[in-house]
Amino acid sequence: MPFDQLSLDPLVEAAALPPMIAPSRTALVIIDVQEDFVSPSGAAGHWGIDLGVFEPPLGKIETLIAAARAKGVTLTYVRVVSRPETDIDALKLLHQRKGRPPQALAICRAGTSGVDYYRIKPEAGDMEIEKTLYSSFAGTDLDAQLKAKNIDTLVVVGFTTECCVDSTVRDAFHHNYNVFVVADACAAYEEELHYGALNALSKNCALLTDCASVVSAWS
To answer: Is the peptide bond before 168 cis (omega within 30 degrees of 0)?
Structure first.
């Protein structure tokens, strides 16, 4: 669905973007590109969902990683690593009240292939953050690591837009970061959720951009 057919705030003009995401103070935050979420062989692959929606943004993410690495932008890989002991009571009760079986909690379990990155891989010197729920800031040292590198700006990509991307972007704003969401490098299992999340974030705590503009700014 074209952006001009939606009520989204407009994308930041490409010409204005370079000083806003200067490599020396910016991190590319890559959220939950994992087997269980987007791979046909992972958990989502057994839910009867068409995962084809993730292919275009996956390609954009790979392009952005290469552009960021070439320009010296800090790469921050975030993923869920869950264990039975980290399943909080609120999550378990929520699943119970929704009528979901207990095994529905077993997503991205430590020691399984579902926790692995899908099609991407950190390199030496990249930041890696492990989380147990949605926000990349909740229960992690992400804020401390970013501030230690004098980073004040985040370019966020990944999955899913309405869940872990949304939670991370909101928390980043509340931690006083300037946040950009790369709209075509994110996705949700339902198109309406993707655009609804982008709409809400752009109205309140982030600016929207696209892959081509970010690559141009870092070239």
So the answer is: no
